[in-house]
Each structure stands twice: as structure tokens, then as C-alpha cells.
Design a protein that fits this description.
The complex is a heterodimer of chains A (286) and B (334). Chain A is an all-alpha fold. Chain A has eleven helices and no strands. Chain A has helices at 23-27, 39-56, 59-84, 87-120, 122-127, 135-162, 169-197, 201-217, 230-238, 240-253, 258-285. The longest helix of chain A is centred in the middle third of the chain and has 34 residues, at 87-120. Chain A is elongated and about 75 Å long. In chain B, a hairpin with a 2-residue loop joins strand 9 and strand 10 (220-225). The radius of gyration of chain B is 24 Å and the shape is elongated. The chains are: A mainly alpha (286), B alpha/beta (334). At the A-B interface, helix 1, helix 2 and helix 5 of A face helix 3, strand 6, helix 4, helix 5 and helix 7 of B.
Chain lengths: 286, 334
């Protein structure tokens, strides 16, 4: 061969092994595409991915439950007596609220995960596969719901140990968890949109918490709004987080009214209906 | 699957006037491509030339603002789903889930394609063996070396044998031996009948791998042909002369320039001269003159122009892929 490159140091081919190194590729079976899978099958594969992540990165569970555990302990034992007369009474009030907060906060992580996947180019691979275009998001949701279940279960477990008792029993608790998953599903869209818009996962987190802190604190999660100034109270009373918390308290204590449940569902339903098309549009745009 | 026309023309990719703008910036400004089946086709250009955008359009990831293209006979605009059945793309950054193991990544993708879990696992294992990754199959991808990641990434593109494999800068960031390994893989893939369209900013890579090369710059195709044709396009060979005494370099350069009438390039080390030399008789006279004038030559040889020189001749700007040599020269001049 003639000298094609002036720079001799850039011609390592002279020192390379003969081309017989990997017979494996040549022997690789040619595989035609199988019958295309359905959307549900695709979504379940993404859900399976979320479970695998739990196995490989168990630390993420720590991220999910550490804040709510700290909140539960701090609020119950530091403020509880002063706020509700006794720590036991306060825990009874606070626990359904912290479940809502946990789920709402956790939905930030799916936005971060999405942003990471985009950054790594993983979504480009998914998008060149002949699969249902919303499957990656549906899968993300499956993973989210699992996260919500696990985190909610752990917080409830700790609550039970500390003396929390759901008056509505097992059935009420199951209904409350169904409500929690619905809330998480609805909130998830907000952060999927953020994850699609923002390039860096850290920014997604910062932005997410900037939105969530005021919304969760200016709610009835921690305290009864009765003592708040009028202008704040009027916000707290219509804050979707308050409505969700009220319905969850109702479900777990067995006193939920249909209107409470209906009001709590407004935000998740509206968010899903408005943001799902936005997500699809943004995804096609990227 | 492939339609009649393309079966006849035997083209894996056919693009006409592809344009893509981002705001005011035109990333791809009207590119035509014809890529025959089974060949390795390189899109060569500096950073920001529009290579990745071109690839993304053909892989249905970005829609063109103007122009049309078919991939394996399917229109990218009207039948992107069909295109996706016959392509695979390996992006510039390993498109893998770093938290999962290598095997899990492959199984996940195989299941997304629609294979049942048993078949998916079997295919994953086949690929792991073929790509010599069996030993690392159960390690998380974040613990892989750059070369292993690349191999896994390419393996992930072969779960279903694609008609066209798009590789965006397949060896960027790899060490020389890993690079060799990837090159070998690409050649074997092409030999097995997969059409490969790759982008690269390394002239050597295009030269080594590609059956055909399109040189693009500022979103336009400025040349296309085989490596040999591109070199012939500059119309001449290059004479390289090495001197025993580097102190004589200026005098020797003047003499060569006088005989051959073109600019003489000095190597960074300062002991070698290169000059375009089209005419055999004039070249012979120039070398003879050097010797009769008493310059001690340790070596002289004729070569085809390097792709660097071709690129320089085509774009009028120094090749962006050889920053070391260029910056060294710039430093020496400064």
C-alpha cells in the first residue's frame, strides 16, 4: 500500500493483528424482525428496566424515602406535640399528607431519569426502533408507579411502627394507595415535560423542587390552615396538593366523601389530559 | 419488503436535496446521496459540518425541512415506521443504559423488538460471544471501557440484522487498539451484507474503511468518490524528501520550489519536506538537482496525496481532524 497518510504515527494498521481476530461476527446469525409487539408489551419491557434499576442501584430507594422519613420523624416529634396536642394525634393527621408529599416529590425523579436518558442518547436508540412512540414514557410511568408503591409502603410501615393507625383498615388503605398512584401518575407528566425541555438532570431537580416546595408547604399536609392569614388560607384551600391530602386522610380514616375524592382527582386528570399531548409533541420535536 | 425500483437500482439509501435548519443556522444545506447496498459509505467532515444532522434525518430521528430520501426503499417522511424496521443506529455517545449490565441492555432491546424472553436472551448471548463481551456480560455498563461500550453499542444495533447500520463517529474517543477493533467489526459487518453509513472526522478512518466517501463542509457535499478518486482529484502526487542535515532545509526547500513551482511544506520536526509534484520528469530533475547540489538525502519517495491534503485542496481550510500537527505548525509560525 502507498503512504496514504503523511503522518506516519497515525498509521497503526501496520502493527495491527490480522483480520481473522473475531470469527464471531462473520458467524453471527442473520435475524429478521419478529412480529411487532403490542404497546402493552413494550411498556412492560420498560417497566422491567425500572425494576432492574432498583436491583442495580438500590441507593435510589434511599433518595426516595430518606426525606419523607426525616420529615415524619421531625414533624411528629419536634412539632407534633405543639401542633396537635400530642405526637400521636399529630402523626394521625400528618401521615396521609407525607404520603402525598412523597409521591409528589418522587415524580421529580422520573423527569431526572428522562433527562439523563436523553443526554446519554438512549432515547435515540429507542426512537429508531419500530415501537409505539409513547412506550418509553408509558414504561417510565410503570417504573414511577413501582417507586411510588415502594416508597409509600415504606413510609406507611414506619408510620405503623410509630403508632399510626388507619381507621379505615386494609380496604381504606388500599383505596388510599390507589389514589396515591393516580396522583403520582398525574404529577409525573409535569416532570416528564420538564425532563424533555431541560437538558441537565440537575436542573430538572432544582426546578422541580423550586415548584414543589411552595406547593407542598402552602398546603394542609403539615398543619391545619385554620391559623393561617386569610390570603394564604384561600390559596391553601384550593391548592391541589391540599385537595389530594384531604381525600387521602378521608380514605385512610374511612370518612372520605365522593366530593373529596372528585376534587382530588381534578389535578391528575387535567394534567394527564393537557400534558400527554404536549409530551408527545415535544418528543416528536426533539 | 424492498420495493421494485430500489431492487433494480440496488440502492440502500437515496437522498435528494436534504435540508435541515436550526433557527438561523442551516445544518444541512441540500445534500444528495446514493449509497449502494452492502457498501461502507463514509460521510467525512469537520465538527459542525452537518454530518450528524444528515445521519439523524436518514435514521428518522429528525425530519428534513426540504428534500426527500428513501432508506431500503422506504420514504423517511411518509413511512418512517418501515424505515425503522430496516435500520439500526449507533449514536455518537454510547446509547446504553449504564445502570444495567451488558446482557440486560441487549435483552431489553431484543424484547422491545418483540422477541419472547427466551429468544431474546439467546440472541443477547450470541451477540455477546460474537463481540467478545461474554466475560463482561453481567457487569454494569458503567464499568465498561470505552472500547467495550462501543462494541456493545454496535452489538445492540444487530439484534435484528439491519439493512442499513448508521454509525455516528464510531471511533471518536477510542484508543488506537480499540479503534482497530471497531474497524475490524465494521469491515466484517459490511462483508456479511449490512450496508454501513458512518460519519467520521478522521480522514484516515474514511480512507481505511469506506468504499465511498462523501466530503461535507458547512452542510454541503463538496466532493464524493472513492478514496482513490478523491486523491486523484487533486491531480498530482506528492514528493517527500528527508534530509540528513536539517540545517539545509531552507536551501533545499527553495530548490524544490524553483523546480516544481509549488509551495513546499515542512514537517513539524523540520527534517522532511513535502511538495505537490504532478510531473514525473520535473520531479526527477528536482531530486537530481538536490543530489548534485550536495544535499544529503536520507530518503525520498513519491506518494499519492493524503486525504488531509485532499481535504485541504477541496475546502481551502486546514483539516480539523489533525489538530496536533496543525497547532504545532501554528505554534512554530507564531
Amino acid at each position: 500500500m502507498t503512504d496514504l497518510t503523511a503522518d506516519a504515527s497515525a498509521s497503526p494498521r501496520t502493527a495491527s493483528a490480522p483480520e481473522t481476530g473475531t470469527p464471531g461476527i462473520a458467524a453471527l446469525r442473520r435475524v429478521p424482525p419478529p412480529t411487532p409487539p403490542g404497546p402493552l408489551s413494550n411498556a412492560l419491557v420498560f417497566g422491567w428496566r425500572a425494576i432492574l434499576k432498583f436491583r442495580h442501584v438500590p441507593e435510589q430507594l434511599f433518595d426516595l424515602v430518606m426525606t419523607p422519613i426525616m420529615f415524619t420523624l421531625l414533624f411528629t416529634f419536634v412539632f407534633g406535640g405543639a401542633l396537635a396536642g400530642s405526637t400521636g394525634d399529630y402523626l394521625q393527621y400528618f401521615l396521609p399528607g407525607i404520603l402525598v408529599q412523597t409521591v409528589v416529590f418522587n415524580s421529580v425523579y422520573s423527569g431526572m431519569g428522562l433527562s439523563t436518558d436523553f443526554q446519554k442518547g438512549l432515547f435515540d436508540r429507542f426512537r429508531t426502533l419500530p415501537i409505539w412512540s409513547l412506550a418509553p414514557f408509558a414504561g417510565l410511568m410503570v417504573g414511577d408507579l413501582l417507586r411510588h408503591l415502594i416508597a409509600g409502603g415504606i413510609i406507611l410501615g414506619i408510620g405503623l411502627i410509630l403508632g399510626y393507625r388507619p381507621d379505615a383498615g386494609l380496604f381504606g388503605t388500599l383505596a388510599a394507595f390507589a389514589m396515591l398512584l393516580t396522583i403520582g401518575f398525574g404529577m409525573g407528566w409535569v416532570f416528564i415535560v420538564l425532563g424533555l425541555l431541560v437538558r441537565t438532570p440537575m436542573t430538572v431537580m432544582t426546578l422541580g423542587f423550586t415548584i414543589l416546595f411552595p406547593v407542598t408547604f402552602a398546603s394542609n399536609i403539615m398543619v391545619d390552615p385554620a391559623t393561617m392569614p386569610g390570603w394564604l388560607r384561600s390559596f391553601v384551600e384550593v391548592n391541589p396538593v391540599s385537595l389530594m391530602t384531604t381525600s387521602l386522610r378521608g380514605l385512610m380514616s374511612g370518612t372520605a366523601s365522593l366530593s373529596q375524592i372528585g376534587l382530588a382527582l381534578i389535578a391528575p386528570v387535567v394534567l394527564t389530559l393537557t400534558l400527554a399531548p404536549v409530551v408527545l409533541w415535544l418528543y416528536r420535536l426533539r | 419488503m424492498p420495493n421494485v425500483e430500489n431492487e433494480r437500482t440496488n440502492l440502500a439509501i437515496q437522498a435528494r436535496g436534504l435540508v435541515r435548519r436550526y433557527g438561523d443556522m442551516t445544518a444541512v444545506a441540500g445534500i444528495d446521496l446514493d449509497v449502494r447496498r452492502g457498501m461502507i459509505f463514509a460521510v467525512l467532515g469537520p465538527n459542525g459540518a452537518g454530518k450528524t444532522t444528515l445521519l439523524r434525518m436518514l435514521a428518522t430521528l429528525t425530519s428534513p425541512d426540504a428534500g426527500t430520501a428513501t432508506v431500503m426503499g422506504h420514504d423517511i417522511a411518509t413511512a418512517p415506521e418501515k424505515v425503522r424496521f430496516s435500520i439500526a443506529m449507533t449514536g455518537q455517545f454510547a446509547s446504553l443504559d449504564e445502570d444495567l449490565t451488558g446482557r440486560e441492555n441487549l435483552v431489553m432491546l431484543a424484547r422491545l423488538w418483540g422477541f419472547r424472553s427466551g429468544t431474546a436472551r439467546a440472541r443477547a448471548d450470541e451477540l455477546l460471544i460474537a463481540f467478545e463481551l461474554s466475560a463482561a456480560a453481567r457487569k454494569q455498563v458503567k464499568d465498561y471501557s470505552g472500547g467495550m461500550r462501543r462494541r456493545l453499542d454496535i452489538a445492540a444495533s444487530l439484534i435484528v440484522t439491519p439493512g442499513v447500520l448508521f454509525l455516528d463517529e464510531p471511533t471518536t474517543g477510542l484508543d488506537p487498539s480499540a479503534r482497530q477493533g471497531v474497524w475490524r467489526l465494521i469491515r466484517q459487518l459490511a462483508a456479511s451484507g449490512v450496508t454501513v453509513l458512518l460519519t467520521t472526522q478522521y480522514l484516515e478512518e474514511a480512507d481505511q474503511l469506506a468504499d465511498r466517501i462523501a466530503v461535507i463542509d458547512h452542510g454541503r457535499k463538496i466532493a464524493e468518490g472513492t478514496s482513490r478518486e478523491l486523491k486523484a482529484a487533486t491531480g498530482s502526487g506528492v514528493l517527500h524528501v528527508s534530509l540528513a542535515d536539517s540545517g539545509q532545509i531552507e536551501a533545499a526547500a527553495d530548490l524544490l520550489s524553483a523546480h516544481l513551482g509549488s509551495v513546499v511544506q515542512r514537517s513539524p520536526e523540520g527534517a522532511e519536506l513535502s511538495v505537490l509534484a504532478g510531473d514525473a520528469a520535473a520531479t526527477n530533475a528536482a531530486v537530481t538537482a538536490l543530489i548534485t547540489e550536495g544535499f544529503a538525502l536520507t530518503d525520498f519517495r513519491m506518494g499519492a496525496p493524503s486525504l488531509d491534503e485532499v481535504f485541504f485542496a477541496l475546502t481551502g481550510t486546514p483539516d480539523a481532524s489533525a489538530p496536533d500537527a496543525e497547532t504545532e505548525k501554528a505554534k512554530a509560525l507564531a
